[in-house]
Amino acid sequence: MEGKRYLTFALGKGRLADQTLEMFEKIGITCEEIKEKHTRKLIFVNEEQKVRFFLAKGPDVPTYVEYGAADIGIVGKDTILEEGRNIYEVLDLGFGKCRMCICGPKEAAELLLHREQIRVATKYPHIAKDYFFNKKHQNVEIIRLNGSIELAPIVGLSEVICDIVETGSTLRENGLYVLEEVCALSARMVVNQVSMKMESGRITKLIADLKAALAD
Ligand code: PRP
Known about the structure:
Blueprint: E1 7-12, H1 15-26, E2 43-46, E3 51-56, H2 61-66, E4 72-76, H3 77-83, E5 88-92, E6 98-104, H4 109-113, E7 119-122, H5 125-135, E8 141-144, H6 151-155, E9 160-165, H7 169-173, E10 177-185, E11 187-191, H8 193-198, H9 200-215
Parallel strand pairs: 1-3, 1-4, 7-8, 7-9
Antiparallel strand pairs: 2-3, 4-11, 5-11, 6-9, 6-10
Residues 123, 147-150, 163-170 line the site of 1-O-pyrophosphono-5-O-phosphono-alpha-D-ribofuranose.
């Protein structure tokens, strides 16, 4: 893993970052600094392996990677689809599995069958637009929210939502159902397009090592 320059990784904050670091440990890439719970540091370095990591808000990870501020990013497929950045998606890491779905009360299923003009609340307007306009050819109004999306159909803001479903408990506890599935999601590794050429040796080895660890 020796190399002249640092290979910089942008990790989406939270559970994804913890699982990523666990997986990297399996292939011998470690970073002790990042494990300190109460640190206010933003960037963590392993001098010996010439790698550094930083934590960012998920939606910002593809931005850092597109501009080359990070060579590599680990982020959910939902964010990749939503952000639409010029980056290479090179590997499905297999964790963080969930689904992007259209959900709502049972009665709303009917509204999806007849191409009705309905309102769709979501944190993912691009994914929702692509699904309704390009795939279903249904002319809907997209309402952008920042969280607790399940509230929207309950309080009458929208007929349905386009949101992530993992265990399904948020839907169950609020009397909502999966009405249609948009796509499957999981954590992905993304790479800056120039880094892929300039650091192709290290990055190709990294991908191969991760693939081997995933196959174990
Ligand atoms: C996500 C998603 C759903 C929930 C799904 O929200 O938007 O609300 O998790 O998980 P489940 O199927 O296991 O119940 P998140 O917790 O990220 O918070 P948010 O409401 O701020 O989007």
